[in-house]
Write a structure and sequence with these properties.
With 455 residues, the protein is of the alpha/beta class. A hairpin with a 7-residue loop joins strand 4 and strand 5. Helix 7 packs antiparallel against helix 15, helix 10 packs across helix 17 and helix 15 crosses helix 16. The radius of gyration is 23 Å and the shape is globular. The termini are far apart.
């Protein structure tokens, strides 16, 4: 066993754990204030007391409460808001805590964002920037590799809360579960498959799900367990030699039916449930009040705007009718591919701290998220082009989706996944498994690839 190196003081230095990330991510705060407005900002009791001990102009902690109990998580508090903004966000767009006392005294949640860091059970660390941040979507500034010092400093604080992922490859067919090293290698193969842009997006998604179903069947699960050198070669070679068959399977798929559409709409509505928007309201006007809008949207009669103001008013156009004529520009494809690569490089598509999914569930959810993002981006394009008001006269016309539309869609899709308990619900997992399957996904991918080339 190798010995830890000793420092000049004679104290053993603990070696840094290996950490994984997608290198093509960059972020530098642009001061947009998004993270200080709509979203909840949780703080511990210790952080609350530390901030209340500070001298901050115009803040009298003895006379006014600036923190309220966080009902969702016992023992935590939320920073109060005024006009939907954090009370500590100054009129100049800067945090008054940071401005007067430096970054170090801010709550961990504020210092952590937009980083997503997980300590894994095998000692490795994964890090990524979250796509619900406007600056991360721009992908400009300091590369994630340049944030290594900050990542390990934050990690030391996260360890105190025992933050780690318990993602697994599959459920009961294989016991014991494959080691995390196997899981990472499998994820790398799926990453290569989904980034093969010499095939349409629909073909790549279709093959990924077909491969997943094989690997989790009683015939194919042993491939994951032994994971020999031929695993990657066999998977990629099979895709290349059978790409025409996957393309034909999509082309020849039966048209989507009402059941496909209703379940897709229900899952899509989950991405629109920005809980921060309803927590500020009473129980009746908040959670209960959105039941009717959700039911209307499931029946393709309602609007996403009634579920979240982040979305356009989609009245008059169903999700499938928006998806079918949508044609993404190359920048939108590049953004989606970066999102896929980040998720699979870090394994963060399995969730945490929101839903914690198995590897199988995580891959299905990732495929669902891509299709949902395109659908929502198409809604944004339709609203901008006036298509929502002239659907009867626009059949057969293309609906061009640019990176602005895709960015708006991906921002809220990514945010909701990490914050909403919706995707961890048992019936939602079952619906996702049913819909994102070789049999039921093909009709939806037929809409996604459409009759037009993706250029």
């Amino acid at each position: 066993m190798s010995k830890a190196k000793k420092s000049s003081r004679g104290v053993s230095d603990t070696p840094k754990p290996r950490y994984r990330y997608h290198p093509d991510q960059a972020w530098t705060c642009i001061g947009c204030g998004k993270c200080c407005t709509m979203w909840d900002i949780p703080v511990t009791r210790e952080e609350k007391e530390r901030i209340e001990a500070l001298e901050i102009p115009e803040f009298n902690f003895e006379k006014e409460r600036f923190f309220i109990p966080y009902k969702r998580f016992g023992g935590l508090f939320m920073i109060k808001k005024r006009d939907e903004k954090c009370v500590f966000l100054g009129s100049d767009g800067l945090c008054v805590i940071h401005k007067h006392h430096g970054e170090a005294v801010k709550a961990l949640a504020c210092r952590l964002y937009p980083l997503h860091i997980l300590q894994w059970v095998d000692g490795e660390v994964s890090a990524s920037f979250r796509f619900d941040c406007n600056a991360v979507l721009l992908n400009e500034g300091r590369k994630i590799s340049e944030h290594e010092g900050e990542i390990f400093k934050l990690l030391s604080e996260l360890r105190q809360s025992d933050a780690q992922s318990n993602a697994k490859f599959t459920s009961t067919r294989l016991n014991p579960q494959p080691p995390l090293g196997n899981m990472r290698e499998v994820a790398a193969v799926y990453r290569e498959i989904l980034l093969r842009n010499d095939h349409s997006l629909g073909v790549r998604l279709h093959y990924a799900i077909c491969l997943l179903e094989f690997h989790t069947s009683k015939f194919g699960i042993g491939h994951v367990a032994k994971l020999d050198d031929e695993f990657r070669t066999d998977a990629l070679d099979y895709m290349e030699s059978h790409a025409d068959e996957f393309e034909y399977a999509i082309f020849d798929a039966e048209p989507s039916n009402k059941i496909h559409e209703m379940i897709f709409n229900y899952l899509l509505s989950g991405f629109a449930r920005v809980d921060e928007e309803v927590r500020s309201k009473s129980f009746l006007t908040g959670r209960v009040g959105r039941i009717v809008p959700i039911l209307k949207f499931i029946m393709s009669k309602g609007s996403l705007r009634t579920l979240s103001r982040e979305y356009p008013d989609t009245s008059g156009l169903s999700a499938f009718n928006a998806l079918e004529p949508a044609v993404l520009d190359w920048e939108s494809h590049a953004l989606l591919e970066r999102y896929i690569s980040v998720q699979l490089s870090s394994l963060h598509f399995c969730g945490n701290p929101g839903p914690t999914l198995t590897f199988e569930e995580g891959v299905r959810h990732l495929v669902l998220a891509i299709v949902v993002t395109v659908s929502i981006a198409a809604f944004h394009s339709a609203e901008e082009s006036g298509r929502l008001k002239k659907t009867e006269n626009s059949k057969g016309e293309r609906l061009f989706v640019n990176v602005k539309h895709t960015t708006a869609a991906l921002r809220i899709v990514d945010h909701t996944f990490y914050h909403s308990p919706f995707f961890g619900l048992r019936h939602v997992r079952r619906m996702t498994k049913w819909l994102i399957s070789e049999r039921n996904l093909s009709p939806i991918l037929k809409l996604l690839d459409g009759p037009f080339p993706e250029t």
